Amino acid sequence: MKPGSETLKPAAELVHEIVRVFKVRRLYAAAHPQRVEVEAAAAGCIQELLAEFGAIDLAISEEALTHEEETVYRHPPGPESLAFLLFREGLRRVAFYPGLEPAELATFLDHVAATALTPGTETDLVARLWESNLVHIRYAFVEQLSDQEWVPPAAGREPFPEHAPIPLRDEELQAIEEPRLLIEGDATLYFLDDADLATLQAELDDEKSRTLVPESLTCLRELLMEPVHEDAGPLLAALAEVQASYLEQDDFDGVRTIHAVFEPCLQRSPEGSADRAAFADMRRSALEPAVLARLAARVDAGATDEAEGAGYYRAFGGEDLRALLSGVPELKKLCQRPIFMEAFAALAETNLPALRAAIAGDDPDVACAAAYLASLLADPCLIEPLGAALGSAESRVRLEALLALKQFQDRRTIEYIARRIDDPDPAVRLYALRHLIAHRHAAALPRVAELVERPPDQGRPLAERRLVFEAYGTLGGEGVVRTLAARLRLRRGLLRKLDPEEAACVVVGLAATRTETGRALVERAARSRHPLIQRVARQAMEAWAERAATAT
Amino acid sequence: MSPVTASNPAGALGRDLVHNLFVALRSAQLYEPTNATLQAAAGRLSATIRELHLLDGVARFEVGRDIVLVNDARVRSELRSYTIHANIQRFFAALEIGGFEWTEVPDDGEAARFAGIVGRLEGTGATTPDRLAISLAESGIGVAVLPPRPEAPRDPFEDPNRRARAERTYRHSVAVTRDLMESTRTGRALQRFRVRRAVQSIVDQVLEDETLLVGLTNLRDYDEPTFTHSVNVCIFAVSLGQKIGLTRLELYELGMAALLHDIGKVDVPHEVLNKAGALTREEWSVMRRHTRYGAWRLVADRTPGSMPIHEMLVAFEHHLHLDLTGYPNLFSDRRLCFYSKIVEICDSYDAGTTPRVYKSDPITPAQMIEILDRGKGVRWDPILIKAFISLLGLYPVGCYCLLDTMEKAVVVAADPENVHRPRVKLVYDPSGNPQEGPVVSLAERDAGGEFMRTVIKVLDPERDGIDVAGAFLASAG
Questions:
Q1: Best mutation site among B457, B472, B473 for testing chain A: the one with the most A CBs within 10 Å?
Q2: What is the pTM of this model?
Q3: What is the ipTM of this complex?
Q4: Does B168 touch chain A (CB under 8 A)?
């Protein structure tokens, strides 16, 4: 130790405490009791040292910290060396001042740790320290110290040349008579009165509350409208970042505005250019399923205005309907709200080819959503793809296609539907049968007759079997009464009684024929001793009575 | 004792005490003891002291070189109180006292007597803290005179040569700007971290004492006009920002935007940028594109994920006037960024007063101030122009002036209280003899109350072979 160096020992102690905290921070999380204890103890110790001995400064080299040219810390260069981490970031001196708060020390070490993890980033340690404005820690970095070697060249400067007197020129002598440059007494030139200060403060407050993002966007737009470089890539990349931040904040109107404002700027870019590709990427990211799911959830929760949501779908769905339909969850539920139904119907109407492709596409979710939209439009050009969708391996697609076809007032659809009465999916079969019944489509009778002829299938519910017979009676009318009557007498197996369930189905079929013969047979069946046959027959008779009353 | 920062109302009381004390002292300098204005000011001072007593049991006002304390709590200088803080610090420094402690609450009459005794001491040098304490006690006012605050403890970073430090900051900033622009011109990406450190140094320097750096803007370097111009604009902008109350971090943002405002000039062909004569129409068209080049470059060279919004907007807008005339031509109206308005003023001032190879008759700083004043409200924000004039004075640092004494002088410091009466360094005596004269304040009055010196004309320093920057540095040294 140098003689008279009173602060060497405290400097060594201070460094020891800082290194101790530095180490414990690497081992334990912020709230860990041991870390909290060490940090508190170190801060207290350092405060005492500084209070007693005054400011302590340290010089930083690659592998050591020195105080008054005496080493107080040494460690080989590496990520575990405090000296190395400070040195690498350009720090060459650091001083700790009396009054150092524990929070300041913690912030200092936080920054050291942060830059140790991400060296070489633009926000380096010096920048972080400056921004934190730590009152009791000062530092010098490499540029500052190298500049100090420069000495102001005062000696070489000659501000006051030694030469002969310069007598006043005429215009200078006349100046005393001339009016002054500015009226000196006019304080309004420079004096900020209360109104000025209030205006200024309001403007400052307003400026602080502005994000300046809209201004940045208009600036980017100006640059795109009158480009100074051929490569618009950087501008579009910035735009994409703005869009990403908007999406992150669920500012869907903002995203829509970006596209509305910037698309016209790309008109001069040729098709297939990098600029257009970049913009298409932005569109794609606006239609990502996660984004659409968030939008739907927010609309559902009332957090996003319905008009904003509908506007977003309209803006982005037009060019990539498939992506939109792929990402929007529960389209049917969403379309229960008129504004969304209108929006999606309009989108579908203006993109019929895309809708046709989506119906017949591989993605069952998309196909279902597209089939639903087709049901809203009922455009004849959609019958064919919907018919094709009825052949899908996915039952939900077949069902949605069938439901859509039901909405069409077109004879072609009934044939497609009739084919589905033997669909593997019971729901599809039921809808198909009901549709045939409702439309009394006689042309489908042979298919239905084939089902009637089949022995009852244990896997199929009785309700469906009855519906088959109802369809048979409805489509066949008088022509099938005899066949049905014969089945009513049929015994299954030797000496066995008529199967009551089968009989009930036949009764339903007879009732559906709406013929006098059929009616008579039903009335007879109503007298059956079997309760099921009796009940079904009576229900049919009541239905007749109701129809008659309604007709009267 | 609980300090007055314990709650917000107490903090407001601290500000009130500073304000009311200043107004009372000022009124006492201007008016007779019976004057209603003085009485009203004394009443407000008394009321504030009473409230502080109620809160903390004492009212103590202390002032140091860079600090004002009320009951041990720091009273921060804000936009509205900036001038008051500066004046009150100067006042107490001149009296060589550290403040007052009111042990009893004075009534309105006692407060008026207190203001009368203390306020009229300014400039007389006729008392000492002890004698002041005695006269106050004799007047029956229960107030103790505090000694000056002790000097700060040893500071290992203290650099006694402020001028050298300021000049280092200035020259380093110019060097960094040159490196930045030259490396950018050769196709390298913007190296922001060195620029960032330079701007941080400028902000620190301005916060400490802006006058030195503002004076250094006169260090025109004919070989590096673009680089010195960028640094000058940065210094003016940060100084103006400080004057209107921007925070330290905001000053940094503003400084970065100001330093990079002309970065687009690296894309302007060298032969156009440094052409000796007047530019042709086509060349002007190319030159005017530098705002778009700048904005484009700042966007292109940004770190992914961070948008340099202020820098881009200032680069794009710094030649757009308040009424959106100027350039670049716009496709739609826009609201100018606040920083752009500041930078435009600073840019216009520095560009106007900088001698250029193609300018046969550069505008003097004082003429430029007049131009700015004429254009306020149309080209430039009127309030910012006022603040700018208040910052530089009507005769900014570097002005070479003829005085009514027939002396010639260089303005070396503005006086915020007397914008038309700066401090000047006398360089020629009335007979035209060159001299390294003293620095004097044009606000000084003679025994008859008349100003001893007044500017009557602003002159061209080059005609008399005067290096205004050198004069400034000599005065600062």
A1: B457
A2: 0.73
A3: 0.73
A4: yes
